[in-house]
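anyone seen this seq b4? input:
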Amino acid sequence: MLSDIEIAQNAKMKTITEIAARIGVSSEDLEPYGHYKAKLSEKLFVKLKDKKDGKLILVTAINPTPAGEGKTTISVGLAEAMAKIGKNAVLALREPSLGPVFGIKGGAAGGGYAQVVPMEDINLHFTGDMHAITAANNLLCALIDNHLQQGNSIGIDPRRIMFKRCMDMNDRALRNIIVGLGGKINGVPREDGFQITVASEIMAILCLASDLSDLKARLERILVGYTYDGRAVYAKELGGCGAMTALLKDALKPNLVQTLENTPAIMHGGPFANIAHGCNSVRATKLALKLGDYTITEAGFGSDLGAEKFFDIKCRYAGLAPDCVVLVATIRALKYNGGVAKDALTAENVNALEKGIVNLKTHIENMQKFGVPVVVAINRFHTDTEAEIDVVKRVCKEMGVEVSLAEVFAKGGEGGTDLAEKVCATIEKSGEKSDFHLLYDEKLPIKEKIETVAREIYRADGVVYTKQAEKAIDEITALGFGEIPICVAKTQYSLSDDPAKLGKPEGFEITVRDVKLSAGAGFVVVYTGDIMTMPGLPKVPAANKIDCDNSGNISGLF
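predicted toks r here
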């Protein structure tokens, strides 16, 4: 069997101008990065502003497990399958982060015969967006420390600087550091730390900004820290937001690539869903809606994280209304939720499936709370038995949702035509618009918003706040930012804040240990459990398996 990278390297790609032409984009609206990837120009947004939007399909999943779910693979395969049944579909995905690529999770280009290409470029440097975000972020950090060094006329308290440095790599050693050591010439010593780039506020700002002027305005609103007398300091006061905008002006433009079957794919932005809002950019999604009759996008990790934030943050700000949710699961993962060990998942176990399928049922119920019709996609493995498949079909029928067995990993678009047809039929059945609605009113107090998500999505009995979290909520509210959405940082492995609690946990409370304001992004970040904004590498990093020969050929990249 060929590996993902071998399949991708054997792909017969079309030039990016050919891919663009398929969706009515002329060469003058492309800014090519080689032959097979390009930025989409700002002029294109103006040309398409009056065109009617297509249908929006969100792909999400159950809670991830070591058995794998294949959400991106299903997203890519569904887009390819739409083309197979004669539909004009455009894929809108996030960009991968180098941290997971060299760590444990892997890339974000799909798998098997449902991939986005050129796979190596996409998973490595792509068009440089991640580097631009990192540079803009760290420019602001340099300006903060320079201000302290040059006399600190604003009176910033070095103990209360809220904005951290970032890099697009997993490096636990940088979570907590001391800067400014080595004498007076090297700056003011203070505690600092790094986040991974995809968890940074700059990433969120890029993904939520509507245009360049909005981007700049959001950068100016970043909360930098507090003065000695407790006054909030924003990035605008330090200057440099124009320079940050200059670094980000090209990164703000969405990227066009293609699938293995030459379906157009727009990839842009890459916030994690467990520690950020987990969706590709508003601009990419809106552009895809203008260019295709169907837009397939995804939100990170399970629906309790990515989908909830897609709805309550991205759709709220962008005015989007999804027409259908595709909920991805595997029978292997459901058996894992039912207590089966990872090395025993290939054996038939109907009893464990019956127990673990409660996770799927809960995610279906959660999505239905937003008023969007759901189609379940079972990413099929050859070890799935008829008896196990019958259990999933029965449960989905009882819950009133369609279910499709997708084989896009092995067969590409051909393996997803049933899913594509059921998605289209579901959208047509719901009429011109779905009954989409948000989970909470953003004007509710911060605690009420947290408790609504904890109760309705995580199924918690209540929320416990540390003293630090209580103080932060009071400060944020006093600053006038209590009436914006929340972005919960939580483990992806469980509906609860404890990764060991599988299935549908009961009798638990969510613990909020800290709350921070991302004023530029426009949401309040709520930290639960021991979630880290700078991941670490595993004992055997994926980087150890990646190689490049003397001719520049890459191997071991999945």
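Residues 414 and 543 are 33 Å apart (CA to CA). The chain is about 35% helix and 20% strand. kinda curious what u guys think
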